[in-house]
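Holo prediction — zinc ion.
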Amino acid sequence: MKQVTVKTSKTYEVWVGNGLLDSAGERIRALSSAQRVAVVSDDTVAALYAGRLLDSLHRAGFDDCSLFTFPHGEASKTLATAAKLYEFFAGHQITRGDWIIALGGGVVGDVTGFAASTFLRGVRYVQIPTTLLAQVDSSVGGKTAVDLECGKNLVGTFYQPSLVLCDIQLLDTLPREIFCDGAAEVIKYGAIRDRELFEMTASPDYRKHLEEIIHRCVSIKRDIVQNDEFDTGERMLLNFGHTLAHAIETQSGYTIPHGRAVAIGMVAITKAAAAAGIVPQGIAEELERACWMFDLPTSTDFDPSGLAQICLGDKKRNQNQINVILPEQIGRAVIHPMPVEAFQKFICEGCR
Ligand SMILES: NC(=O)c1ccc[n+]([C@@H]2O[C@H](COP(=O)([O-])OP(=O)(O)OC[C@H]3O[C@@H](n4cnc5c(N)ncnc54)[C@H](O)[C@@H]3O)[C@@H](O)[C@H]2O)c1
Ligand SMILES: O=C(O)C(=O)C[C@@H](O)[C@H](O)[C@H](O)COP(=O)(O)O
Ligand SMILES: [Zn+2]
């Protein structure tokens, strides 16, 4: 079992290990005198794990627990789902003293966090991430969001969870492609901060090192988010590959999963930067090889000028400048500001 303490506007623990789902009730009870708990999940995850979570909550004396589920997938990460959550919380008389639990992947975590941050202007919530992606990345750091048709995560808040429980055993039921989506974010963490992690990712006995890998990613995220909770500087490094990824997801009508889009985004932006002479040759190929180990795609057929246009609506643009994250080497990334016109040319020429 490993533990990471995150000290931001809220201080909280992230636990990484086996068996955390069944002890969730007592761990939450140690922090909370809530009378009511609302659990939010998607249909797939609820069928697998909600029963065990509810049993654990009841054992810990939470007698008034309710469960809301929505259809799985990115298409549910919307204001419409958030609105249903508000009605559900109100209908179950959730108060500011009660707690909300997000049980699921990044979609459940992001939309539940968003609803928790806005319902009654803030109800405490716990993240119990059930995908690799959610355990290494989305459950920590307090970015919450919903998508708009025209762009990814365009509505959201910064609202830290009160506890994060990463139960590695829950990953046993993940289909391989969904596990591999998470590997894209692990590759990102290695590429921006930790060459050893990057190499560990590429090792054949990857699964044996999951606790160590999740712990390393969460620790990197903790360090970055503690320095820049509100994404005005260093935190932008966590966006390596993401501006393009978000454009790809949007262009696909959210049918291309986030992890796959991030894999394409990291490789494409690094290739474009190498072609422009901004980063050394060879890094994109190293990234590409790491992605291929997880059958992650590394290129797209979408028209680059259309993608560049969508990129300009994402969060890394500030007036006439856009911040592009680039790896100078595996293990070290930098924020490279570009004028908007130069960025469009950079994407159109570099991503063909
Ligand atoms: N807030 C952040 O910092 C942050 C960071 C990274 C990604 N994200 C967001 O996370 C989302 C992607 O998350 P994701 O990849 O977890 O997708 P997801 O939540 O859609 O989960 C993927 C699929 O796996 C299923 N699933 C989840 N856990 C399972 C389990 N244990 N066993 C079997 N099936 C399971 C789900 O039902 C779903 O169909 C995107 O919306 C992305 O923008 C947010
Ligand atoms: O926590 C962060 O900061 C990240 O950028 C992590 C990303 O992996 C994640 O996909 C995040 O949701 C992207 O944020 P956005 O602000 O670019 O929407
Ligand atoms: Zn991401």
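READOUT: Residues 42, 44-45, 48, 72-74, 77, 104-108, 110, 130-131, 133-134, 137-138, 141, 143, 153, 170, 173-174, 178, 181, 257-259 surround nicotinamide-adenine-dinucleotide (ligand 1) (CB under 6 Å).
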